[in-house]
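A quick aside before the break. I want you to see a complete sequence-to-structure record at least once, exactly as it would be stored in a machine-readable document. Don't worry about memorizing anything.
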Amino acid sequence: MSTKRKTVAVHAGSQLKGSKSQPVVPPIHVSAVSFFDSSDELDEALDGKDYVYSRIAAPNAALLEEAVAALEGAEASVAYASGMAALKAVFEAQNLKAGDVVVMSSDGYGVTRSLYKNLAARAGVRIEALMLTDAAAPERIVALRPKLVLAESVTNPLLRVPDIRALARASREVGAALAVDATFPSPYGQRSCELGADYAIQSTTKWLNGHSDALGGSVSGTREKLAPLRAARLLGGEVLGPFEAWLTLRGVRTLPIRMKAHCEHAAHVAKRLSESPLIERVHYPGLPSHPDHAVAKQVLEGGFGGMVAFDIKGAGRPDCFRFLEAVKLARAAPSLGDVCTLVMHAASASARRMTPEERQAAGIGESLIRVSVGLEDPDDIADDLLAAVSEAMKR
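That is the input. The structure line, written in tokens, reads:
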């Protein structure tokens, strides 16, 4: 089959192996348990060679894993009940010991940072939060000699873009695993494993699903790297349910078409926002003014993504809350990747679990709004955002 993204999205994960039936849309397999007339076949199924118990393997999740792996350009993928479960699985698969170091982005998703701090505290592991977009970041990784480096291909919520290739070289030099949360660009915008990452992580709830109706997560990589994760999931049971897997696979079918439009709309909205005197700063990798624009052109393949962030000039938290209440077309919601435009106040949502000191060090101020740009007419989106800013800043 072709490896081109549009073809892969439509056809990968279409048929369960071992069957001659070829439904255009795979059915939803709701049974959690199956039986066999042959004890030998049952015995083999319990080792994962067939579907017998959905904690071990399940048809809909298997089809989604096949599709995500193909989109990521990876050998395999493991699906989870949420993106956070996927991130937790990567941490736990490293067999970290007391005194080991984990490096992660200092300006990334606050909930991820909180999760890793909690996991590290239990294991006696040291967390080093670095600005991974800094030119000196690879040298710092080499000096720290971590066991695991967790990067975000586009950071949440400031939309900074690290050079994954440079981080991969530094990680390899010291024998560290490099995991990349590539949720913001999706596999349409970046195949992180092809840039040197050991793990490509997705919150499939977002762009892959695309309709805000199914939680999920995935980790992609080589079969060897994923074997411990798959074994741990079998024991821990963080499996993706059949309905969620089916809904996400349905979303995958249109991912390239949707993402192309999301990227185009986001670029237009970012330009409109940058022209407003009410906006202090627009964060969008596609703008030449963005500090990582040159890197983004090299590591983001399918455009600059569907996310935009901006600071309202002179705004505090109450002003931003008034902005959320003033939007008419957009919806105030703490997620992203939907066909409709979603907006949120970063400091009280994506960075909510960070301390004030951590937010300040990351550059996440009270005036920052994050936008997941939808499929509405881009001028309608921009008009709505700008009108809401104007309404919020009336004194």
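Two observations worth writing down. The CA atoms of residues 91 and 306 lie 28 Å apart. Residues 255-274 form the longest helix (20 residues). We'll return to this after the break.
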